[in-house]
Amino acid sequence: MSTPLASPSPRSTYRLQISPSFTVDGALEVLPYLRDLGADWVYLSPMMASTSGSDHGYDVVDPTRVDEQRGGEGRLRRLAEAAHQAGMGVLLDAVPNHVGVADPRQNPWWWDVLREGQVSASAKMFDIDWAAGEGKVLLPVLGDGNETDSEAGLDQLRIEGETLRYYDHVFPLAEGSLDAGLTPREVHARQHYRLVPWRWADDRLNYRRFFAINELAAVRVEDPEVFAAVNAVTLRLLREGVVDGLRLDHVDGLADPGGYCARLHEATDGAHIVVEKILEPGEELPADWLVAGTTGYEALAVIDRVLTDPTGAEALDAAAGQRDPAREWAELTHHTRLTVARTQLGSEVNRLLRELGWADNVDVDARKEALNELLASLPVYRSYLPTGRASLEEAFAAVRARRPELAPVLDELHPILTDAEQPVARRFQQTSGAVMAKGVEDSAFYRYTRLSSLNEVGGDPSRFAVDLDEYHRAQSQRQAETPHAMTALSTHDTKRSEDVRARIAVLSECSADWATQLEQLHRAAPQYDRTFAKLFWETLLGVWPADGTAPDTERLADYAVKAAREAGTATTWTDPDDDVEQALIRAAEAATAGTGPVREILQHVSDRISEAGARNQLVMRFLHLVNPGAPDVYQGTETVFPTLVDPDNRRSVDFTSRASALRRLEEQPPTAWTLPDDVDDAKLLITARTLRLRRDHPALFTRYAPAEVVGAQADRVIASHRGEAVAVAGRWWLERYWDDTAVVLPEREFVDAFTGTRIDARQHRVAPVAQLLEHLPVALLIPASHTLTPKSQS
User: Fold this and answer.
1) I need a labelling partner for 451 at 20 to 30 A (CA). Which of 75, 267, 503, 639 fits?
2) 78 Cβ partners below 8 Å, 6+ apart?
3) Cα distances (Å, whole numbers) of residue 3 to 14, 78, 86, 382, 632
């Protein structure tokens, strides 16, 4: 039997988090299940050698070899061979922006730089400002010191063999630096690095990082030699047919993202590539990037908002204390980004000053503040010069209006930062994305709570909902421009998984009642910040089990403390407030207690939204699967899998039970559904049937056009022509009536891929929604002549 060929671009992907506890051997074991599920390509998290014990793999320490703790190259090849034998492709997550340096011993490039300094053959790999460190790399690992000596921690140094040690930190010794009679502190002074207090990271570091993470040092892939070294194994695996395509992590951190993508496109003979790129509403991926598209956060944002009832905005805004949501969001995000630029990313801003030649200028404060304000005012993550100049001009105009006293400095900056050939302009672009991510995703998202399901990566929470016209326009544009881009619903970076957001969205349908219940929660378990408390309670309702049991107390308490520290309004990572955090822990305990007012209030609301939430979970997954693009199913989410921000969203998945459930559904397809009780089975069946059709019958999904819906409840129906298939979904499920609402179908006979119900539209082209959605909240109508694929085709 000949080996089926993988499609040149995936029709869908299934994301697996490969880790020391779930290696490629584990992936190989679940591959038959993924094939039966309908996944077209298997999508692997980073596979290059990472920090020992890393469960995510984004802290690559050696990109020149496949990670042995994840299975090694030999086993990766066996997985790829099995995938290809099954007709599946392999998509690999690549990390071009940075490497892990938490333990220098594990990173041969970093170890060599620390040992040999600027003359190291590896020095070119890293983005280090040697002059700013007086020829040394500054490493922020020391404690706070004392009043007379900020570097008193150096007294704790000790020498062991050819290494210098500070508690658990181990560093190399430069050749000839270890002379007899020298103290460890004196030996330290002779190294090519300088250990400094950890707080110096905010404004004195001289190497570029990933965001504000000192343990991730950026690499210079814009240099051809560095590009070749970082990508050598990845490109070899592509050339040898082990992997078929790439997902590129954090391209906004690169000096020239478009140029990097172009070099990869050429080096891979046009292999399928998608980029992790957050697009703000209305923003488009630069047209000259030679990639299939993004990883799909913009698609996620639209799906979330089409399922949010706009009539709930007024009551939810009042409950959050918001009067002008758009203005308040703009002011908040400006403030949080400005704070990040002034603090956590101050080292990066100071680097910009040095490259401008302004670091020693008498007006350095004004110049630094102008840069801070520009970084805080950019309307997108990054301006891509020259094509993205308009967004940079918008930032200049905003700062001129807000801070007229900075006009002279802005006049000096404008011709420099708008010139794509200026090195400092490129560095400014690299910095702006980090400021946006830290200021918005990791701060403002925890402070602004109109409806917490909207506070998601790729989304603008001030945009409460989208109407059907906007939704359909977005899908039509996606089909026309990026039909092979990835579409996401849950990822390793989402703040809340799809199933959590789907339940929270139902609160927009009962907003007045939720506002009343929220007031009772504020009285029953008062918190330091009512805005944050609203986010916390909504998140709890999102993860609340539909069977009436409570979530795990410790899990909720851990989330509450992490979220509060990210919000930074009363407790922070660097200055935690025990009183604030203990109040949150007590709230989590009260929520999950067997009895008591907090538990009773939450259970009341959960019971009310439970069935509608289950239907929303199915609709959200269905839209994700049938919309244009290649849907990515994040591991475990083929059934209800309510997870929170990392590391919660990297929890292990019980593939055995899912495979067993899929076999059961194939052998005995349900004839009726009871929600929410059957939501796991329903989601699994919808996922499998749709993925199989997209993989095995791609002609069903070749175009996108809104389907005509008539009747009193037409606004509650999302219907589209996807080629030969017609997709129908209901929304706002607290109300279950459809009146005379119907979908106008082409003149042919259809069968619902999920229920097997036949719809004969040859004489009566108007199909009642009450009939189409009698059993499930979604219907996928395919020509009756098509045969459903009960199991995988081989």
Assistant:
1) 639
2) 24, 28
3) 21, 15, 7, 44, 24
Q: Judging by DSSP bridges, how do beta strands 749-752 and 758-760 pair with one another?
A: antiparallel
Q: Where are the beta strands (DSSP E) in 379-530?
A: 486-487
What backbone torsions phi and psi does residue 754 show, to the nearest 5 degrees?
Answer: -100, -35
Going by C-beta distance under 8 Å and a sequence separation of 6 or more, which residues neighbour residue 345? Answer: 202, 211, 212, 431, 434, 435, 438
**C-beta separation of 63 from 106 below 8 A:** no
Are 483 and 698 within 8 A, CB to CB?
A: no
Question: Which residues are CB-neighbours of 750 under 8 A, at least 6 positions away?
Answer: 726, 758, 759, 760, 761, 781, 782, 783, 784
Query: With contact defined as beta carbons under 8 Å apart, do 36 and 696 qualify?
Result: no
Helix or strand or coil: residue 568?
coil
Count of beta carbons in the 10 Å neighbourhood of residue 201: 21
Residue type at 750 in one-letter notation: F
Q: Please give the average per-residue pLDDT across 669-685, as a whole number.
A: 94
Sign of the Cα torsion 380, 384, 390, 393 reads positive
Q: pTM above 0.90?
A: yes
User: What is d(CA 471, CA 628) in angstroms, rounded to the nearest whole number?
Assistant: 12
Query: What contacts 549, CB < 8 A, 6 or more positions away?
Result: none
d(CA 102, CA 106): 8
Beta carbons of 734 and 743 less than 8 angstroms apart: no
Kindly state the helix (H) or strand (E) to which residue 399 belongs, with its residue range: helix 389-402
The backbone torsions φ and ψ at residue 720, rounded to the nearest 5 degrees and listed phi first, read: -150, 150
Is there a contact between 499 and 413 (Cβ–Cβ < 8 Å)? no
